[in-house]
Amino acid sequence: MKATPLLDVHRDLGARLVDFGGWQMPLQYRGILEEGKTVRRACGLFDLGHMGRFHVVGPDALRLVDRVCTNHAAKIPLSSIRYSLLCNEHGYPLDDLLIYREEENIYLVVNASNSERDLAWIRDHGKDLHAECIDLTDNQAMLALQGPESENILQRVVEGYDLSTLKYYNFGFATVCGMSDVRISRTGYTGEDGFEIYFDPKEAENVWAALLEAGKPSGIAPIGLGARDILRLEAGMALYGHELDETSNPMEAGVDFAIALTEQKGDFIGRKALERLRTERSHRLVGIVTEGPRVPRQGNELIDPKDGQVLGRIVSGGVSPTLETNIGSAFIRLGHDQEDQELVLDIRGKHQACKVRDLPFYSRTRKKKTAKPF
Amino acid sequence: MRPDDRKYTKTHEWVKLDGDSILVGITDFAVNELCSGNESDLVYCDLPDPGRELEEGETFGEIESVKAVADLNTPIAGKVLEVNISIEEHLEILSRDPFKDGWIVRLEPKSKSLDDPMLMDVADYEKLIAAEEPSA
Q1: Is residue A20 domain-shared with residue A82, that is, in the same domain?
Q2: Same domain, yes or no, for A184 and A262?
Q3: Residue from A295, A320, A322, A323 to probe the interface with B (highest B Cβ count within 10 Å)
Q4: Is A323 on the interface with B (CB under 8 A)?
């Protein structure tokens, strides 16, 4: 199994380690719920060294990215970032990713579990172009700071860059803990304000320790992948293998904003199929809140309380630290997908009442931050 | 050292003779696998109705934590005489005292012997745990 440069640090912190996409990663350091609350209230530090990171370089870099990605890379302003899918010819997602727009080159952040396949796919489709896709995953550490205190904490170890000028989904380069040219993006996967930083893995332990030290007065804590998963579900963000996979229509998954079917974008892999899939929607991704103690889990069916017919299936579920109730996301047949629709969750033959909620369950920018519980 | 007055299974249940009946529970290791030492991470427990006849190895209930669901299996066949209903409302009992207050069901066993080759004494169980523990 692969390990990030911080594996020993996680062990020393008493983390529970799990295999995640072929990497040995911290699932939790303390309780998942407590860790989730720490991120919403103060700040969490995450080791994301498992995420795949590629640099697409050369004069045709943009053409290659626009050929394989669903979003329109050429339209992304310099130093901005956009979410996108990587689809096959049938319009089904092979992965979801972030596109960082540089002057000539493009930096990509992909899921650990799909990283090898993505790399081969991108290289295969760029053979006729002057562009090269370089895998930087093993040459860079990646950390995230997430939560309302993130800017204050990161600023304490950054020199020569006023982080308040870095806008959401933008990136820049700054000196961090004495290292120059560290890539810093205002991005994350929790629904909170926060940053992701990329740097020399030899410095990983130093930077980790410096951030924990700098964040001590603000209540920072290391956070595992367990809390990260529930926080992204609260924020209505897709996770590959759950809301997105190679067999389900991405046009039903609430990611239309990442699929540019515009004239300007031109042809790309999967475009024709996606135009058809857009007209073939039969379900919609929604949130589910439950009454009672059972937690919705991937694969549970949702049935009509009136006649028992199956109306959908759960793709993600967990205990929400922010709503303090059990939540899930599910594909529900159109016509039964509206807010407050009553459904029955079938957990291995046992039934529990639940209701539909529009996603997200949580938004830090909305006036009413959280969705209604059951 | 875990109690030596009972037998253990590979799937981390324990069984203990208690007069004419048998108590079945799960070990601290099983609880910790579910909640990693955070008792508030346990969310649900599904227990059988008294009177139900259980076969050896049968799943009679479930315990759910924030991150997973685990089946409860009985290594001994018998009729359910009593269930520890206090667990349903107070799952933390399982984490605080899995070997005594955290018993789960009381069975009227088909056979009163715990000399089943599938059941381990505490020394063998601790060897098994020692082999599994590094993953945690």
Answers
A1: no
A2: no
A3: A295
A4: no
Q: Containing domain of residue A207, as a range?
A: 7-49+140-233
Number of domains forming the structure of chain A:
3
Out of B66, B69, B135, the one facing A319 most closely (by C-beta) is B66
Q: Is residue B67 less than 8 Å (CB to CB) from chain A?
A: yes
Structural domain includes residue A313: yes
Could you read off the pLDDT of A31-53 as tens digits, one per residue? Answer: 999 999 999 999 999 999 999 99
On whether residue A121 sits in a domain, the answer given is: no
Complex ipTM tops 0.95 = no
Q: Can you say whether the dihedral through the CA atoms of B101, B106, B112, B115 is positive or negative?
A: negative
Distances (CA, A) of B134 to A11, A226, A273, B69, B130: 11, 19, 48, 22, 8
Interface check for B59 against chain A (CB to CB < 8 A): the answer is no
Class of domain B9-129: mainly beta
| CB within 8 Å: B64 and A294 | yes
- The pTM for the full model equals 0.91
Which residues from chain A sit within 8 angstroms of residue B64, using beta carbons?
A: 293-295
